[in-house]
Automatic annotation (TrEMBL):
Residues 1-19 form the signal peptide. This is Expression library immunization antigen 1. It is a lipid-anchor; GPI-anchor. PANTHER family: COPPER ACQUISITION FACTOR BIM1-LIKE DOMAIN-CONTAINING PROTEIN, HYPHAL ANASTAMOSIS-7 PROTEIN. Residues 171-210 are annotated as: Disordered.
Length: 234
């Protein structure tokens, strides 16, 4: 008896395996796609392996691996060793990202002016990348940081890059003030009309109470320079 095997294309299998997004650089707390919808940080605890950020040149590249072909993305920061839900600093306000695979936000500023506080040796912080869920909620990945004068660049060469056809663009100012976990991929408020991000995930746990307030009071930064820099890498 001849049994005919129908094999799914490898690209299809890879798409299934990469249904959300991964934070490649700086080093993430980990990757558990089953918990990625849990705020904050995909439900993962702080890491003992913190990425060093220079006190004299406090900038960082953010490299992502996108599993959605259309997403709203936002980058937040919280100060402290274990800040909980207090992500009240916006490094990059919500913007549109299109395309699967590698996506890079280069030279994201973490200066004293941006953070609103004096940077000191050994100061710890946590960076959180937020994307929209589908149809509601958000997805969360975190990286733990430490500021130091002796920071060394241990990033692998070429880790921050943009794949073919990957683009980014700012939303209008009014849309940019919506947190990514409240936005559709098209920049509209969740619950209204507009498309999602192509995944079949039915949403996840959204921040509530003080957690939601922490996100709502985030200080909005300037996106244009970062997006233009990302475009230059295409």
């Amino acid at each position: 008896m001849h049994v005919q095997m129908h094999l799914l294309p490898l690209t299809f299998l890879l798409t299934l395996a990469s249904g959300h997004f991964d934070l490649i650089e700086p080093r993430s707390r980990g990757s558990d796609h089953d918990k990625l919808a849990e705020f904050p940080c995909g439900g993962l605890p702080p890491s003992s392996q913190r990425t060093q950020v220079s006190l004299t040149d406090p900038e960082i590249n953010i490299a992502l691996k996108m599993g959605h072909d259309h997403s709203a993305v936002q980058v937040l920061l919280a100060l402290g060793s274990d800040p909980g839900t207090n992500f009240n600093i916006t490094l990059v306000p919500t913007f549109a990202q299109i395309g699967l695979g590698d996506f890079c936000l280069p030279d994201v500023e973490l200066s004293e002016e941006k953070l609103g506080t004096r940077l000191t040796e050994g100061m710890e912080a946590t960076l959180q990348v937020v994307t929209n869920g589908d149809p509601t909620g958000g997805l969360y990945n975190c990286a733990d940081l430490v500021f130091t004068a002796s920071a060394s660049d241990d990033s692998p060469d070429g880790s921050c890059k943009n794949g073919t056809g990957v683009t980014a663009s700012p939303f209008p100012t009014s849309v940019g003030r919506i947190n990514a976990n409240e936005s559709t991929a098209n920049g509209e408020r969740q619950g209204g009309s507009g498309g999602g991000n192509g995944d079949n995930n039915q949403g996840g746990k959204q921040p509530s109470g003080s957690a939601a307030a922490s996100l709502q009071t985030a200080a909005w930064g300037v996106l244009g320079v970062v997006v233009l820099a990302a475009g230059a890498l295409l």
